[in-house]
Amino acid sequence: MNLKERITKGWNAFLGRDPTLNSGAFASSFVRPDHVFLSSGGERSIANSILNRIAVDAATLTYEHARLDDNGRYKEPIVSFLHECLTLNANNDQSARAFMQDAVMSLLDEGVIAIVPTKATANPMVTEGYDIGALRVGKVTQWYPEAVAVKLYNEDTGNYVERIFPKSMVALPENPFYTVMNAPNSIYQRLARKLSQLDNIDAQSASGKLDLIIQLPYSTRSSFRQEQAGERRAEIEKQLSTSKYGIAYIDVNEKVIQLNRAVENNLFNQVEYYMNLFFAQLGVPMSVFDGTADEATMLNYFNRTIEPIVSAIVDAMKWKFLSKSARTKGHTILFFNDPFKYASANDVANNADKLIRNEILTKNEFRQILGYKPSDDPTADKLNNPNMPIQDEIQDKDKTEEPKEEEGA
């Protein structure tokens, strides 16, 4: 679209048809206002690292607005604004990878999210013939029969606003592990509560309290003696706080009993139990988080954990962002995972030999996977077995050979 068409036909979720900025664009903040904050208590405990690891791994996949052939196979990427949102930048603040990490992180925390097209070449509420120019992840605050209320970051004003959108233009993926992570009494919710309790106990133990009991030489049953004991305690606290080295004195008949010792409880054992149970139900081994997982373990992790989450998001976007007419023309949204990312050098070499020899990939296609520039060899873009002679060479050889004379001639 040229500039005139963008001005006359462009649509913005916050400004209607006018894509220009308003005075609120100059709002500022000391922290990044569009950053995702967890709402289930995981932000205050180490449970946050579990969601972050899954979100980072899901964001490493490649997402494309692609075209399929007549047999439903991947043919080529489509040059569109939606393709740029999935591969380059989703909006003014987030790259494509940051957007996908935000989407997965919010999905695991909320259970369901709203992916809203905030800019488009036409009004999505009026027509299906539009291309998406920007995407944002929002929180669903209210559900209606044909619409949803979404709390969304407005990049024009720098504030969060609530807008009502029809369900037909908003992708609403749901966490496939909702019963494990987002249900009120799920394993993850229990784990988050136990971790918060453990963090609170650690904070109390490191708060600098002395945990002392001072035994006075008289009974404190009467109110007068209790008041006198309180004055004595305040005096000792004042001595410790005002002393350069934290030294105080007591009477010869007074005794000090120290209590700063570990209190025995089974909280840590409960945390360990819920952690192992959560990893087992989610299909994530502990070796994935500590970096010791082998290739088979990572493949199982991607197939059982990452793939269902990513498929839920991609299917929702494919359903809402691509019209029926576009889908009949072969338009789709796909994601790809690099199968050689966790393979060793020897395994990569063996796989390269098998894939090229069996004419599955060309040499240049495999060089692209490794990050090398294409070769200028004319045979590098052809599917052929390098261990077998090419058919053209065989025919040329047959033509140059002289026919043998028949016996008895």
Can you tell me about this structure?
The chain has 409 residues and is α+β, with helices and mostly antiparallel strands. The chain has 3 domains: 3-178, no CATH class; 187-268, no CATH class; 343-402, no CATH class. 41% of the residues lie in helices and 15% in strands. The chain has helices spanning 3-9, 48-59, 81-87, 96-110, 178-181, 187-205, 223-242, 267-282, 286-290, 295-321, 324-328, 345-357, 363-370, 391-400; strands at 11-12, 62-68, 74-77, 114-120, 132-143, 147-154, 159-166, 212-215, 255-258, 331-336. The strands form 3 sheets. Strands 1-4-5-6-7 form a 5-stranded antiparallel beta sheet. The protein has a 3-stranded antiparallel beta sheet with strand order 3-2-10. Helix 2 (48-59) packs across helix 4 and helix 6 runs antiparallel to helix 8. It starts with a helix and ends in a 9-residue tail after the last helix. The model is unreliable at 17-25 (pLDDT under 50).
Relevant terms:
elongated; 5-stranded antiparallel β-sheet; 41% helix; 409 residues; 14 helices; 15% strand; 3-stranded antiparallel β-sheet; alpha+beta; 3 domains
TL;DR?
With 409 residues, the protein is an alpha+beta fold. It has helices at 3-9, 48-59, 81-87, 96-110, 178-181, 187-205, 223-242, 267-282, 286-290, 295-321, 324-328, 345-357, 363-370, 391-400; strands at residues 11-12, 62-68, 74-77, 114-120, 132-143, 147-154, 159-166, 212-215, 255-258, 331-336. The relative contact order is 0.11.
